[in-house]
């Protein structure tokens, strides 16, 4: 079961259309949510739909403010297990109200964001460690 | 952006072929890894390939032993964002060396496990809360 080297891991991650953000609150309770994202350098950007009337939707923001450590996972599943792979980016996240660079890279990757630019807030995740695995 | 009620969330989760397990260690550092799983009642079972020579592969087990709280996410992504959905199961995990019920339900769901039963250890996750969201 071969590991992916950090360069291979980073390339596969950058091309993925969706990833899953794992955070934890100050007491260590984990949380996970899917997110679209764009990678530039070793920074992952994502836009957060604030949904001010649904407090649970903001848990990722509260978690990041209390505990900036995050793990972001991109993976490929198929019933043919010889094609499986995953990549994990471990790093630290910040919440940004304004993020022009995030808007640029997200709009370049997703047509939806070109048509309707996200209002934010945004997450900027500085990746400290790339890891990954591929079945073949 | 409609929430899924717990019954709907549970049904979608049960049918998913892969989920992502988010754990955190005793210091609150989150971790995420994809996993195949089977749901029976409100218990999620998964088999862990122990890989004794690769200590990083055991981080999910060390985390669960230190901090049993976990979040498990199943989601659907497509570039047509009107079809997106996700379901999250929040609960507590245990590590089991032997788990006959896990073997039975995993083999019923995955052909690979019928051909080669997993040796374990296993994770048993008692789901305390189902939540989910669907774009349409």
Task: Describe this protein's structure.
2 copies of one chain form a homodimer. The longest helix of chain A has 10 residues, at 6-15. Chain A has a single domain, classed as Roll (Pnp Oxidase, Chain A). The N and C termini of chain A lie close together (7 Å). Helix content of chain A is 24%, strand content 39%. Chain A is built from 4 helices and 7 strands; from the N terminus they run αββββαββααβ. In chain A, strands 2-1-5-6-7-4-3 form a 7-stranded antiparallel sheet, with helices on both faces. The first copy, chain A, has 136 residues and is α+β, with helices and mostly antiparallel strands. Chain A has helices at 6-15, 59-66, 100-109, 111-115; strands at residues 19-24, 30-35, 38-40, 43-47, 69-76, 85-96, 122-134. Chains A and B meet through strand 1, strand 2 and strand 5 of A and strand 1, strand 2 and strand 5 of B. Chains A, B: Residues 12-129 form the Pyridoxamine 5'-phosphate oxidase N-terminal domain. Chains A, B: Keywords: Oxidoreductase. Chains A, B: GO terms for molecular function: coenzyme F420 binding; oxidoreductase activity, acting on the CH-CH group of donors. Chains A, B: Pfam families: PNPOx_N.
């Amino acid at each position: 079961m071969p590991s992916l080297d950090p360069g291979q891991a980073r390339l596969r991650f950058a091309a993925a259309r969706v990833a899953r953000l794992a955070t934890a609150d100050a007491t260590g309770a984990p949380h996970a949510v899917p997110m679209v994202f764009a990678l530039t350098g070793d920074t992952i950007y994502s836009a957060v739909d604030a949904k001010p009337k649904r407090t649970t939707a903001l848990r990722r923001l509260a978690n990041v403010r209390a505990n900036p450590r995050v793990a972001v996972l991109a993976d490929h599943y198929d019933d043919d297990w010889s094609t499986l792979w995953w990549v994990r980016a471990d790093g630290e996240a910040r919440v940004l109200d304004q993020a022009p660079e995030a808007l640029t890279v997200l709009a370049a990757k997703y047509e939806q964001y070109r048509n309707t630019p996200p209002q934010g807030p945004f997450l900027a995740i500085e990746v400290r460690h790339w890891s990954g695995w591929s079945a073949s």
